[in-house]
Amino acid sequence: MSDGTAVLYDTLGPRGRLRVRIASIVCGVLLAALVLLAIVRLEERGQFEPDLWQPFGEWVTWRSLLEGLQATLAAAAVAMALAAPIGLAMALGRLSLNRPTRWLAGGYVELFRAVPLLLFIYFAALGLPRYGIELSAFWYLVLPLVVYNSAVLGEIFRAGILSLDRGQGEAALAIGMTYWQSMLLVVVPQAVRRMVPALVSQLVTLLKDTSLGFVIPYAELLRTGQINGQFYGNLLQMTTVVALIYVAVNVSLGRVAVRLERRQARRYGSAGPHAVLGESDVALLAARAGDGRERAGL
Amino acid sequence: MGVVLDNLDRYADAFWVTVQLTALGFLGSLVLGTIVATMRVSPVAPLRAAGLVYVETFRNTPLLVLAVLFVFGLTKVGIRFSLFTTFVIVISIYTGAFVAETLRAGMNTVGRGQVEAARSIGLTFGQSLREVVLPQAFRTVVQPLGNVWIAMTKNTSIAAAVSVVDLTAVAGRLTTDLARPLPLFAGAAIGYLILTLPMGALVGALERRVAIVR
Which PANTHER family match (chain A) (predicted)? Predict the structure, then answer.
């Protein structure tokens, strides 16, 4: 797929090569000029003063940022660990044979998926104490993350289950398994495995969303950076470094997702009934799934 | 819901802010995303590299980090807009990266034969992109693109974290004063549903209309 666009232009002839080379040089110079302009502008405003960058030469700063990163990762890990089983339960509920169960699970997923996460977090942090529910900042962040992500994961799992060949569930029933046996022993393990790349993408989204802990405030990476930035008077530099840490962590996670996707594609073949699903396929499948009357081969 | 009705004017103002954020973010991210997607498939190497850096950077940075960077950081270098404008710029840049990736995925689904045919009747790179590839790419990505913008509508709530008074901010502020969290937040949630539900329906209808059956 990655070379699908290479066909947009043929192997170039001498004149075409010359044109592309000229365009490359012109664009390269323009981009370099843009970067240079930004640097000059920053320099004029004294943003490269050694004072502003000096904190990054000290272990104290990095230890503080690493603690922030640790808090970020902890919130993301706990939220994912709690949201995944709930999401799976919701997916099974939406595909259940029992109508009230289907409606309840469907209502949960549709409602909590549709509301902005930050609204939940404000509700938890500002609203719950009014009802006498006092939690730590960590849980004010993690609870909304769990509610929201369990709804999203519910859709991912449902898409995975629906994408499985009907024959899998039917065969399990035919050899005498009960509904639950066939689901838990045959359908779900295959569905989950197939959705691993989509789950990792969702993990990246979740990790980014932990930055909303900033508003509670929960001392995750962004908040820690902000505090450091105010202390050293270098908010711009500190926030830039924080952004780069996020990019580094998420790009590595993304790499893992791509590698898993390739490994699965190798193992199960890249097309046909065993295709591995990416993010956009989840959306398509979920859309096609309609109102949940389908039962994943059961 | 009495508290919501009592403050309906504040909710209406905030809803209008959210609508504006959504509309401007939609336009900004569509323009940026299309440009970056074109860069990513162009034969000019520096443009491809710049497009890749753009997508990888902004897709992997949390929106709130970008917002904080722009609101608190860039004022230090004399780039100063209103909070509202700053957030529109930030959400356009952020969502633009997702639009670009979705469009590129769409381009990859356009059959090789289509492009080869376009090339063989003598269309240039720009022509085959404009006349053949992009129209088909847009059609295959209606659903995923729609999802990107529905997610963006929900993401406009992050404006509240940098003091733009949108629906989320109003619910938070009124809660501090009135101590009736549940109806207040439900009111804001309904505001978002008023936007996202028709968007979802529209995307579905559009998808059925323009989908290419292969």
Answer: AMINO ACID ABC TRANSPORTER PERMEASE (PTHR30614:SF21), MEMBRANE COMPONENT OF AMINO ACID ABC TRANSPORTER (PTHR30614)
Gap from B86 CA to chain A (nearest CA, Å): 15
- Whether residue B171 and residue A123 make contact (CB cut-off 8 A), yes or no, is yes
pLDDT, position B80: 79
User: What are the chain A neighbours of B160 within 8 Å (beta carbons)?
Assistant: 118, 122
Is there a contact between A242 and B65 if contact means CB atoms under 8 Å apart?
A: yes
Q: Which tens digits make up the pLDDT trace of A41-91?
A: 888 888 888 888 888 888 999 999 999 999 999 999 999 999 999 999 999
Does the pLDDT at position A286 exceed 90? no
Looking up residue B53, the CATH number of its domain turns out to be 1.10.3720.10
Give chain B's domain count: 1
> Can you give the residue range of the structural domain that contains B11?
2-210
| Distance from the A86 Cα atom to the nearest Cα atom in chain B, whole angstroms | 22
Best residue of B40, B74, B140, B157 to probe chain A, by most A CBs closer than 10 Å: B157
Determine, for residues B69 and A250 on separate chains, whether the beta-carbon distance falls below 8 Å.
no
Rounded to a whole number, what is the distance in Å from the CA of A183 to chain B's nearest CA?
Answer: 29
Closest by Cα among A68, A81, A23 to A218: A68
